Amino acid sequence: MAGASVSATERRTGTVGQTIHQAVTWQARTRPDAVALIFKDERISYAVLDAAADAYAAELQRLGVGPGQLVPVLLKRSPTLVAVLLAVLKCGAAYSALDHRWPGDRRRAVVGALGAGLLVTDRPGAETGTPVWAPPTGGLPAAARSAKVPTATVVDASAAATVFFTSGTTGAPKGVVSPHRATTRLFDGRTFADFGRGRVTVQAAPVPWDAFSLELWGMLTTGGTSVIVDGDYLFPGELRGLVESAGVDTVWLTASLFNLFVDEDLDCFAGVRQVMTGGERLSVPHVRSFVGRHPQVSLLNGYGPVESCVFATTRAVRLADCDAPHGIPIGRPAPATAVHLLDGGALVADGVPGEICVAGDGLALGYLDNPGANAEKFVTTDLDGVPTRLYRTGDVACRDADGVLHYLGRADRQIKISGYRVEPAEIEHAALRLPGVRECAVLPVPVPGADGAWDRLALFYRGDHTCPEPSSLQGELAEVLPHYLVPPTVRRVDALPRSANGKLDQAVLLDLLASPSGDRESSA
Question: Domains of the chain, with CATH numbers?
Answer without folding.
Answer: 423-523 (3.30.300.30)
